[in-house]
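Cont'd.
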Amino acid sequence: MHAIGVDIGGTKIAAGVVDDEGRILASVRRETDADDVAGIDAAVADAVNELAADHEVGAVGLAAAGFVSPDRTAVNFAPNIAWREYPLAEKVGALVRADVPIVVENDANAAGWAEFRYGAGREATDMLMLTVGTGLGGAVVVGGNLVRGKWGAAAEVGHMRVVPGGHYCGCGHEGCWEQYASGSALVRDGQASVVAQPARAARLLELAGGVPGDLQGPQITEAAQGGDALAIELLANLGRWIGEGSASVAALLDPEVIVIGGGVGAAGDLLLRPARAAFAEQLSALGHRPEARIELAEHGNEAGIVGAADLARQ
Amino acid sequence: MHAIGVDIGGTKIAAGVVDDEGRILASVRRETDADDVAGIDAAVADAVNELAADHEVGAVGLAAAGFVSPDRTAVNFAPNIAWREYPLAEKVGALVRADVPIVVENDANAAGWAEFRYGAGREATDMLMLTVGTGLGGAVVVGGNLVRGKWGAAAEVGHMRVVPGGHYCGCGHEGCWEQYASGSALVRDGQASVVAQPARAARLLELAGGVPGDLQGPQITEAAQGGDALAIELLANLGRWIGEGSASVAALLDPEVIVIGGGVGAAGDLLLRPARAAFAEQLSALGHRPEARIELAEHGNEAGIVGAADLARQ
Amino acid sequence: MHAIGVDIGGTKIAAGVVDDEGRILASVRRETDADDVAGIDAAVADAVNELAADHEVGAVGLAAAGFVSPDRTAVNFAPNIAWREYPLAEKVGALVRADVPIVVENDANAAGWAEFRYGAGREATDMLMLTVGTGLGGAVVVGGNLVRGKWGAAAEVGHMRVVPGGHYCGCGHEGCWEQYASGSALVRDGQASVVAQPARAARLLELAGGVPGDLQGPQITEAAQGGDALAIELLANLGRWIGEGSASVAALLDPEVIVIGGGVGAAGDLLLRPARAAFAEQLSALGHRPEARIELAEHGNEAGIVGAADLARQ
Amino acid sequence: MHAIGVDIGGTKIAAGVVDDEGRILASVRRETDADDVAGIDAAVADAVNELAADHEVGAVGLAAAGFVSPDRTAVNFAPNIAWREYPLAEKVGALVRADVPIVVENDANAAGWAEFRYGAGREATDMLMLTVGTGLGGAVVVGGNLVRGKWGAAAEVGHMRVVPGGHYCGCGHEGCWEQYASGSALVRDGQASVVAQPARAARLLELAGGVPGDLQGPQITEAAQGGDALAIELLANLGRWIGEGSASVAALLDPEVIVIGGGVGAAGDLLLRPARAAFAEQLSALGHRPEARIELAEHGNEAGIVGAADLARQ
């Protein structure tokens, strides 16, 4: 059965028709305003109607950045869109002409599900997905099922605590994993190294145009790929935190594969090798089970569309 | 359907017939020798045969302390019994007269399942069980299903890392949760406090007969219940680590209830109150979901029998 | 012998004549511009000349916020004034009419020395001074002598590391004591608690006018003095870090008294009691020596003048 | 002036005549019994009398492992000898024929002083000595003076806390530096790595004769010198903790040189290089002062004799 997936961001939406193999057959985009929730409803419905006019679809999945109600109909809270206990499926459904079920999913869960079904996790039954971007998001699959939790708030991996008394997080707590395993952490550490170790940071400072505060993650990756020792160390440190935190999750869930998504994946082996080494070093019950694989995600930005569509038709 | 559950320990086994309400209708015990695996097979089969002679049963569940194969037939490794890749279900099955399926489960999983089905978690769909004994064991239920992991090694909660560079664990790693949230940790902290703060530890030292190394967990609980400030602090510290670690698990799994089993539960509110406070303080997404309840387990030592029996007949 | 002390800040200087009992007999102030170092020289000299016209003085001490050269003549670096390897004593000396020695001291050292000679440390030979303000500064006295270090950079107490992987510091490192034991840390923790524990933070939020980012340290003290549980906890946490870090210093230096200066002292026992308890709990060799006293500083803003004057005439 | 130094251990004493250049001109040894304090007095006096018969000496210094009274006459407490508030100088003095002053010093202080006067610190005014043996001891020199502290308990460097919630120490506290920067820590980490990473630990296990618990520090050094990656990592980790902790001390005291004594010095650059790198990475105010040198001690077991003699004649 074909299905439509819609990825709803703060300023734009992307929708696509997804076939049984996870391929996007057609897609459309719309610009939106994060404060105009009715406008978002209309734009989503419009995109769905346009796609459904040309394709026979059996379900619609909406990927939303926020806490989704356990019955998958509403967004209880979203950090970047003005949804509060908002019955999104019902609102959009009222504007969609086709008579198909509409399901809401958390966007990180949708993206993780795309990897599980059609990407780096497709041969696994138990998977941890980590999306290492500005923050650290993720998705968890156990025994072939997506873990949503009792109240739809599962897979907030970035807020597991890894350092008591550690860096503050926007969530108000200290030592969240996100503060050590994210693009923001990489940039923060890079900027700090310019202050603490100016001699070693010459190349980074140069790439940042001489302004430590302008240093960006891709510049660190570029420097590392060019052989800069400090940049390599910064990426290795990020990889180490990914691997060590994953070992804690593995103690709890014993996954078969850990999939790393997000922009930092561009660093490739400079990130993966230390991540795998740290994971192996920290894994409990080593020797009594194989080590989970740590792999890069295969899908990019379209993962939300694919995963939302597939979850809707399950 | 009635089923038999068998809890296989290092020096004794306990078996019982369990009805659909989780009640034990009849039970037997056998002494065993941890190094004599054939003798254990025979004792288990003998107990099953005895119970099956008087009761009609549809399945047999064996609860074993060790890593159980994902197909639930073998014990891959056990710390205290000489099982190595041992096909326990087949071995016992060859000696059991009744023609019923025999299933092997990890003992902590079995005990957790008993709480989920017939105890403190019976109204939940998502549960974390923590067994706070000498070590820290546990079980995880997600969406009504027991989480075993890809290789049967899930729910090793005690080996999630909570303090980088923290106390060494018998597993060879530093900072495992078990080193902060277990009866052993309580005793270790109590004994250390006698050295570091002799004036405050007078009551504890008295209960230990004047020998710091003889201090036991129940003595700390006794002192706390009698109002001793240091003992109350020690239990509060244990509770705090239970609560803080649980908040990390909740970030990942969003459970409805966290069930605390094991001997330290005797401390009651002296343990639960600080555990709940710490959990609430550390929980991410507070305000976007209800707080999981933290409750004491309702079953005692017989939980393994009940859970193994019930898992076998599922 | 009377001496003149001058406390040179970024935007103003304060100078005074100090007698042998540490009393200020006369004082003057001048406004300055942090970027105009020659102007600062002139203002300092002018203040000295004015005071010296009416008082017989034997020495002049200049307290400067920065790294002072070991020979006490120059400021090697200052964070807030444009001094770089600046021969301050010589520059000022050229403009001072009286023929007296001019000595430069770090301002925190000068303030600590005032406490040692005429304040909370006056009966001690070994003292640790902690100035808990926006940051965490200090001074160290060993065997009656101020500790300046080989290169004049001693007593940077705020940059001892207390948490590996902890909060970033402006110095580019993680986990500096200053990030846990300062007014800034108190405010940061208070603001975070409003996010993480909104229900408990109602009173703090009210005092901050409803804007978490506007919460100030004195408001936390006010709330605590009014009985607010969260505010009391925040101050206790600050006190705990002061006490625990001090215990590490005491392991190294075995001081007789630890003097707490800076604005947070206004919290009085709400800060001191947890500081003392944490110090006693963490102190090594307890029982083999008395515990150092932890006391509030007795001098306020004029400590720099008094200490600089007294150090100059030693 | 020549002086006699006596190093008093639990089971033997070593005494020597020390000249003005720190050379030992003659030496004697005696065996003793740690529980027989009168016997120790007699043995010490006997050794002193023997040496003084042939050499003109002006003072006698006794190096004792324990807390020494600030007036340098008594041992207040010793962990390995039955001294409790014991007036050692008076007791020994009553048995010594020569009429010379007798002074008691802590043994680590005496050894550190020998390095300061005649060893790796001889050109410095401010020195931190770290003796990395079974534990972590040390000595501190500030402005040319040995730091004894108010109650003679200074320089207990091993009990500065470096990891909150870290490894327990025999002193009853958690996270003491000694638990990370000592030979015992090296051995503990090595033994743990055999459990956690058996594949990488093959060489270490071989050197330990197949018994993880038999692994010794010198075997780790041997393996590292032979190129074993895990052993190199273990020593680098030890070096890192030495360097990072030293950076905290340097924030407080700004020493010119940090001298590393004790058995692990045999690892040479395998230890020093990571120690120096970590020190530079963690040092505050980098760029505003030179980096302290980190050097190996030049004296061996005789440092206590030399330092005690020299301190006695000062």
